[in-house]
């Protein structure tokens, strides 16, 4: 599977995804403009009322920094992990898309990436920090890696084992953002881990038990695991709310399965890898 670098994501993949949210607050058209006269952005223009309304839908507007067709203003923004370009017409209507000049050159991508990459990475990382996670490794570790983890996921268990050299040596702290999506007992097991008196130790023992169960199941394949911690019968409302919020965060980041590994590269940009990465040194550094 490919690694996603959110500093280089374009708007084209997200037009359909956010059309419903934006049409709810403005006449939004998901299209590409071509052969138009482009003018430079002006940072002095006040944010249009329609964009203030759109921000209430969970979209962050960074600023009026995009070259735009004559008579329009170009605004950079993002929602979750997706950059978005908004072009506001004089009548207040909004177009979401990509602008090409008369030579067929993309006038949106570069300025949009430059405008949102830092803010988007800070926003994503901040959301992860505020999520409900279980620490795996020393708090003094120089590198932090978040991983969306399902308690019954055999591939999460593979990743947990593969990460041991970095975690045990104090080089990396994993932060397991618990979700429950694979089997009917997944959420109740995640709740049991979070509700434990010592979640870190409970997770450690759980993954050790899962390791033994996974090895014993060979060669049956990588099936969901039902070993380890016992499911919590009654999930406290606060924990259930945290698990639902974790799942929403995972989906907003475009991660559709576990494990979902999230880290920051040497430039500080957020990177995401769905599944078990082949090259752990790229994420963790030298063993």
TrEMBL record:
UniProt record similarity statement: Belongs to the thioredoxin family. DsbC subfamily.
InterPro entries: DiS-bond_Isoase_DsbC/G (IPR033954), DiS-bond_isomerase_DsbC/G_N_sf (IPR009094), Thiol:disulfide_interchange (IPR051470), Thioredoxin-like_fold (IPR012336), Thioredoxin-like_sf (IPR036249)
One family name in Pfam for this protein: Thioredoxin_2
Function: Required for disulfide bond formation in some periplasmic proteins. Acts by transferring its disulfide bond to other proteins and is reduced in the process.
Top-rank lineage group of the source organism: Bacteria
Keyword Membrane (UniProt): no
Name this protein carries in UniProt: Thiol:disulfide interchange protein
GO terms under cellular component: periplasmic space
Subcellular location: Periplasm
Record-annotated Thioredoxin-like fold domain positions: 140-275
Major location (coarse): periplasm
Keywords: Periplasm, Redox-active center, Signal
Native organism: Bordetella genomosp. 10
Coiled-coil regions listed: none
PANTHER family reported for this sequence: THIOL:DISULFIDE INTERCHANGE PROTEIN DSBC-RELATED, THIOL:DISULFIDE INTERCHANGE PROTEIN DSBG
TM ranges: none
